[in-house]
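Dear colleagues,

As part of the handover before I leave the project, I'm documenting each prediction I ran so the next person doesn't have to rerun anything. This entry is a single chain, and its sequence is reproduced below.
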Amino acid sequence: MYVNGSLIKNINENSLINFLKSKGCIKGEGESGKDTTLWIGELLDNKRITSTELNEFLFQELFYGRSNMINIFEIVSCKKMRDEQVWNERLSESYNINSTNFNEIISTVVHQDTPIKIVAMNTLVDEEGKVICVDIILARYIQINLNGRQSSSCCFIPIKFDLDNKLLIIKIRNQYGIPEKEHRPKATLDKIFEDFKLVMDFETITHDYKHQKVLYNMSKGLLEELYNIVPNYNSLTEMDEYIEGFINNVIDNMDIINVEDDAQGKKIINKGVIDLKDEINKVLQQLVVADYFFNEDIDLFSKNNVSAVITSIKFNDKEKNTARLAGEDNAKVIVCSRTFMSMRKSIEAVENVFALSIAHKRKSDSIEVKFDASEKDRLSILILNQKNYTEEDYNKIWRMYKKYEKKSFNTIERYRKEYVG
C-alpha cells in the first residue's frame, strides 16, 4: 500500500516507531535501513497492522505532535452548527465528504488539481443529538524547497469546533522552506479560517484588549510566584527608613531644581522628574532576586513550586513605543535582568502585553510556549523550538491561560456582552 512520505514528515517519527512497536511491529535484520514509508506500506499489505489502527494514531498525532502553531477564535453564536445535518450538507458541497465521521488519513492524496481535502472528521453529539464538538483534519497541497529544488508536498491542518465553549481552534505545523507565500503556515491558516467562516456561516468576536490584559495578568502572576520564593524579597519594606534617609541626603546635598513640599510639608523630588524611592526599590528587588538565582538555570524553578517562568515579553508603552525583551537565545529567564526590572513600571502603567513567552517543566525536559495577542480576532499560541507536544501539554497551557482570564474578568459572558451586545 502506498503511504505518502509527506505524512511521515508531519509527525514525530519516533512516536510512530514506538506506536508500531506497541503493536508488535519491529524492523527485522533485513529491514533496518528500509525507508519508513515503504516499511509501513508493507506492514499494511501483510496485515501486520490495520489502516484503522494507524489512522487512529495519526489522527491524535496530527492534532498535537508537530502542529505547533495554534490560533484560537471565539465564535459569536453556534446555534446553526448544533445540527449535524448542517455539517453534512455544507461540507459535502464544499469538500465532497460523505459522512461527518470518517478517517482516511493514509489513503487520501492531495495535488495541484485538488489542493485541499478533509482527510478525517470526528463529530461528537450529546444525548439529544445536538453537536457539541467537531474535530477535522485537512490536507493541503504545497510546494517546498528540497535541496535547492521545488518539490510537491502537503501540510495538515487540524481544526476543532468546541461548540459548548464557543471556540474554534486551528493548528498547523510552523515549517520553513516554503517558497510560495500562499502556501506558508500563516497564510494557510488564515485561508482555512476564512473558508470555514464562509462555508459554516459563523462570525467571531474581535477584542481590542482582552487577550493583552490576560497576558499582562499572567506575567504579573508568574512574577509574584517567582519573587515570593525569594527569602528577602518581601522584607524589602524594612529598608524604607534607610531609603527615605538617603533621599533626604540627596535633596539636602545636591542642587536639585524640581524639589517641592508634600502634604506634610516634607521636601520631595517631583515625581515627574523621577520617583526615586520606586527606582531604589526596583534596584534592591533586582539585587535580592539576582542574588538568589545567581547562575541558576530553568531547572531550578521547577523545584520551587513555580508553574512557569517568563522568557520573553513584548508590549507597547504609553507613548505607543514597542518594547521587547528576550533572554539569551530566547531560552533564558529574563525576570532577573536589570533591563526587565527597569521595564516593569512601563508594563504596569499600560497593563497590556502583546506577546509573552513562558517555559515550564515537563517530566524529562522543559517546553517553551509563546502567547501572542497582537491580532484582535484571535489568540495565537506557538510551541517553540519545534518541540513535540501532547494533548496533556496543550491542556496544561490552556488551563494556565484560562486561570488568568478568569482573574482578569469576572465572567467570560460579561465580557462577551460588552462587545457583542
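The longest helix spans residues 210-228. The two ends are 55 Å apart (CA to CA).

All the best with the project,
I.
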